[in-house]
Each structure stands twice: as C-alpha cells, then as structure tokens.
Amino acid sequence: MMRTIRRWRRRGPISSLLLAAVLASLSGLPGPALAEEVALLIGNKRYRALPWVEGADRIGAMERALAQAGFTVISGRDVDSVEMRDLVAEALAKADEGDRFIAVLSGRFVERAGTRWLLPVDARSGEGTSLADKALPLSVVLAAAAEHPARAVVALAGAAPPDPATIRQLPAAALVLAGPPEALFDLVAGPVAEGRDFAALRATAPSAVKAAGFASRRGDLAPREAPPDLATVREDAVWRFVRRIDDLPLYEKFLAAWPHGAPADEARRRIAWLRDAPLRAARTAEARLGLGRAERRRIQQDLTRLGHDTGGIDGIFGRGTRRAIRAWQAANGFEATGYLDAEQIALIHRQARDMAGVERAEDEATWQRTGALGTIRGLRRYLARYPDGIHAEEARRMLDMLEGRPVITPAERADWEAARRQDTIEGYRAYLDTWPEGAFAGEARDRIAALEEQAAEEARRQAEARERKLGLGKMPRLIIETRLAQLGHDPGVIDGVFDAQAREAIRSFQEASGITPTGYMDQQTMVKLLGARPR
C-alpha cells in the first residue's frame, strides 16, 4: 500500500510534539512568529477495509499551483490516523491569523452525532468507538479557518457541503466548497490559488461545486444569524481535538490556555486519572495476587536480607515496606511503583535464596576462623559479625562458660527471640517486663530508644506534610505569628519565617489547646488559633 506525505517549502520531521503547537495556534498562546500562507491537502483513496474513493489522491496539480502561489503546502496521500493527525497538527501550528489558509480534504466522509469526520485509510468502519480514536473532525479545520477572516477556503472533495447549523459555527467570513474531486481540484489549483475573492470564486465554480459560508466583505454569502463568540468556538474545537487524542501533555496545555473554560474540570479529572494510571495498574495487579500475611512476611524478610530495610517484619505492607519495594525495583530496572507483581516476587525470593547461600558459606568460614577455636576473643569476633548466625547460640553458651556467667535459660532466650522477630517497642517492653535484669535488657532498652526516635521522626514528617498542604504563604505566617504573640506564646521576631522559636510557640499553643504538640500548623491548630481570645 503506497502512502505519500509531502511538505513544500518547509521540510522537517513530524512528531507528536506538534500537537502542542495546535493548541498554541488555536488558543493564542505565545509561540514562534510564523507569518505564512498555509495549504493543507489530504487525499485518501486506497482504504484498507473500506471501498476506495476514486480520484481522491490526485492532488499533485494543487500542490504545485499552491506552492508557486507562495503557500507552504502540507499534503499527504493515503495517510493513516497517526499521519493524518500529524499533518493537521503541523498545518494548524504554521497557519498565522490574517494570512490565507486553504484546506482540501478528500476521501471517505461519515456523519455521526451532528459532526462530519474524514476517515484515515486504516479505519475499519465509519461507526463504533473507533471513529473518535482515528478520524479527523471537520470542526477542527473549520475552527482554524475562522482565524482567517475572508481569506480561508475549506474544500471537501466527494462530499456534500456541511449543514447550515455547522456553517453558522464559523465566526468569520470563510468559504466552504464541496463537489466532485476533479472539478474541485481544478478550482483550487486555479482561481483559489490565485487568490480570487469569494464572489469571483462562486462565479468561476462549475455547477457541480456547491458553496456555503458567511458573508465576505463583498457580501456575496449572507449569514442567517449572528455567529457565536470566537473564543467559545475555539475552545470547543480544541477541546474536542484534545479529548479525542486523550494525551496528558495536551490536557495540561489546554488548561494553561483555558483554566476557567467549561471543560476545565473534566480536563483536571482526566489529568489526575492519567497521572495515577501506572500506579493504579500496579496496585490492582498486586491486589489480584491475594498475598497472605505469611507471604508478605517472607517478602519483607527477603527484602531485608537484600539490604532494603522494611522497617519491621510483620506481614503489613506499610510505608517502610513500600519504600523498600521501590528501592529494590529501582535497583533491578523496574518502574518504582512500590507494588509487586508475580514476576518481581519470584525474583526477590530467588535473589534472597542466592544471598542466603552466600551468607551461610561466609558464616561457616568465619566460624572456622574464629569461634571454632574456642577462645573468648574468637567467640566475640564471630558474634560481632553474626549475632544471629548458624553457630550464634553455641558461641553464646561457650562464651558464658568461659567468662563465668550464668547460662541463659531457654525461656529467656525464647522471649528474647520473639521480641527480636517483632522488633517493636511493645515486644521489647514485654521482654523487659518478664526479664528486667535479663541478659538482653540493655540491648532491649537501646532498641526501644531507637524505635521511639524513628517514630518521632515519622510523626514530624507527617506533621510537616500536613502543614505543607495548607499552602501557607508569607502573609498567613505573619498572621499566625502575630496571633501566637497575642495569646502569650512568644514566636520571636514576627517575620513570616517559622524558625525554632516560632515552632516552639506553636507547640506551646497546641499543648495549651489540647492538640497533639508537633510544632507544625494543621487545620485543627489553625481553627483554634484564629478563634482563640487574647489573654
């Protein structure tokens, strides 16, 4: 199947980035100054799954005539949906308001829901959901023509003129021609390329070519009613184009142009949905695995063995575990979503087994060089490196006997091992309640202090995040500091900066108000602070 795409005068690669240029062109966003007369020619004859359209691809004479007349000609023959979209994007991006604009669309047209569409050659039918995904809506081209008052011509080869309701959408003088390909192509290559006015074009056009449109400056095509607002038409046409492509950068570009437009809320919802799509898919895939508590514990154990701290092995995938999963995924070339699929879980287990084999071999070799010698120094060296090693229990018994300490009872050892497995403040306190002077009491107290410090740091980060969500600028911070000072909680210099003294003042106010004292602002603190009465 032959496909030809030509660009006259200005040649360059086409990419999806040109779609952003469509928005810049139609919405008036800043962009490069392009003062060009542009002609867009599309001729689709050889459809893959539909009857061919005879004569639709004979656009060579138009290309040459328009190029000689000074137009930048962007044309394509037998183009698929992607190629057609990129051709239209480039043409609309280059078309400058006020200069001449010509669009010739030739091929198979369909009418659905009050909109006319030009089908690409890869369309399977003119019906169904595939239409909006592939075809070109005529409304996008008409909206571009509206940017060129009395200087735009849209020619539809092999199709009837649009209905009056569609024509009345044109907010400025533009001419729409419709007729057989041969007659229409000759008209474009001759009088249209020469720049004849609308009245002359109508006089020149053969009877087979029909004309429709708004009044030009010569008054030859009278409108039946006043046109709608230009900005509204542009917004609506661009939105339909953006919604059909359904691309995140295009939604963002649309919002930048029309932040308060009618589709703005839908655009924001679509942006949020697309941004969350990879994470949502990964979360759903993990949920379908139905991981039980035992399997989750095993994953945590293996991640820890591989050097990714999960913050505890409890079978609950909290923030620490998700953080460890993301770190492991990044290290192994996966997208760091924090959620696992079956392939990744299998790889984690395999890596952990390999690591365990290496660790056991190293453990045994170290024992032979140190603890197996039966000396106090050797036993301590072994335990320092492998406190939970293969020979750790044996090493402790030997060391206790050599140093004259009472041997640890199996009951205390079991309680300590249980506390170690839980690795929680409550677990270590349970051990200390039973063995306050036990052999591991000092280690238990040290671990409790470390876990309390971690919990405090996590609470601080959460409080900081809650304050960040309030979006406090300098003025609200000045008001907060002023209120604190009025209520007897000295924030220091009132400068809109929450330094250490200001944080202490917030913490003092929170304590006095029955709020958990964090030193950071949140919604509850803000309400109470602004509603409190000075002393």
Characterization of this structure:
This protein is α/β, with parallel strands linked by helices and 535 residues long. Among the domains are: 4-245, Rossmann fold (3-Layer(aba) Sandwich), CATH 3.40.50; 470-531, PGBD-like superfamily/PGBD (Muramoyl-pentapeptide Carboxypeptidase, domain 1), CATH 1.10.101. Helix content is 53%, strand content 9%. The chain has helices spanning 18-27, 60-68, 81-94, 130-134, 138-145, 164-167, 181-194, 198-204, 230-245, 248-257, 264-289, 293-305, 319-331, 342-369, 376-385, 392-403, 410-422, 425-434, 441-469, 474-486, 500-512, 523-531, and strands spanning 4-7, 38-43, 72-77, 101-106, 109-112, 115-118, 136-137, 152-157, 175-179, 210-213. The strands form two sheets. Strands 1-3-2-4-8-9-10 form a seven-stranded mixed β-sheet, with helices on both faces. Strands 5-6-7 form a three-stranded antiparallel β-sheet. It is elongated. It starts with a strand and ends with a helix.
Report the top-level CATH class of the domain at 4-245.
Alpha Beta
Helix/strand class: alpha/beta
- Please give the order of strands in the largest beta sheet: 1-3-2-4-8-9-10
Approximately what portion of the residues adopt beta-strand conformation? Answer: 5-15%
* First-last Cα distance: 86 Å
If you average the pLDDT, what whole number results? 80
Q: Which residues form runs of ≥5 with pLDDT under 50?
A: 9-21, 23-35, 215-230
Q: What is the strand tally? A: 10
Biggest sheet record: 7 strands, mixed
Named at the architecture level, the CATH assignment of the domain at 4-245 is 3-Layer(aba) Sandwich
| CA radius of gyration | 37 Å
CATH topology of the domain at 4-245: Rossmann fold
Shape: elongated
Percent range of helical residues = 40-55%
